[in-house]
Amino acid sequence: MKGKEWGRLSRLDLHVHTTASDGMFSPVEVVRMAKAKGLQGIAVTDHDTVAGVEEARACGQESGLVVIPGVEISTVANGQDIHVLGYFVDPADEQFQERLREQREARKRRNHQLLDQLTKLGIQITMEEVEARKQDKVNIGRPHIAEVLVEKGVVQNMDEAFAKYLGKDGAAYVTTPRISPEEALVLIRQAGGVPVLAHPGLYDDDELVLRLAKNGLAGIEVNHPDHDEEMRVRYTEIVRQFGLLATAGSDFHGERHGSMYHADLGTCTTDRETVDALKGAAGSQRT
């Protein structure tokens, strides 16, 4: 990335999903949408994969939009899913790719457990029905299960699917053994990246946030569409206290059955100075 090009950046969405995981739009489509919305850059942060990064970067180079290689790693702590964002990771790192593959295998096991829980609740959904929501049948996530719940009339919309069944307070929610958030911090650093805790307000576990802040976390996603003002103020103070970076991202997935999962692209954005600091911190602890 040329210094002159980087210096023009002022509005970047650092939490974007594509069809490489559970987003509704391909990497190319997401880049074109971001450009049309007047964004200067995005971070492609698919769940436990970097499969969409190179396609997005190539399209970004053609269209003049900066694409930051990223990932959102799924971990488990205190009985719930905790997500750690990694920025400026090396998509070609073979060891990193292997660890992400293991992560996706854990996701597959979790999906089967979710369907088992739904069956116990009297809701019959097959994995074939879920896989039909995604053409490549790779990296299936809860939004794909939620789509089937909507299509079968079990719930009215995606929000209800998560609130009633698939979210952390839902009747079918399960966790499967995965790496810890601390392990994710190390994994991201080893791949040349910089780790940021995603949407901490969703976890209701500030003790965990403080623990990670003391043990290698580089930043916190302070501005997220699911954070209220009190949360943003609280996490801004933690960022200040520990000398971390405050980031922002829309957690864009796209609209499913009339529901925008999290928020539209560009809803929450990060400024150039923060992205510069992230870039400067990347690779500093690579082993």
| Strands, count | 9
Strand order of the largest sheet: 1-2-3-4-5-6-7
Oligomer: single chain
User: What is the count of DSSP helices, taking H or I runs of 4+ residues?
Assistant: 11
- Helicity range of the residues? 40-55%
Q: Classify the beta-strand content into a percent band.
A: 15-25%
Based on CA atoms alone, the radius of gyration comes out at 18 Å
SSE sequence, one letter per element: HEHEHEEHHHHHEHEHEEEH
Mean pLDDT: 92
Low-confidence stretches: 1-8
In short:
The chain has 287 residues and is of the alpha/beta class.
Question: Describe it for me?
Answer:
- The protein contains eleven helices and nine strands.
- The chain is α/β, with parallel strands linked by helices.
- Strands 1-2-3-4-5-6-7 form a seven-stranded mixed sheet.
- The longest helix is centred in the middle third of the chain and has 27 residues.
- The chain starts with a helix and ends in a 6-residue tail after the last helix.
- 46% of the residues are buried.
- The N terminus is likely disordered.
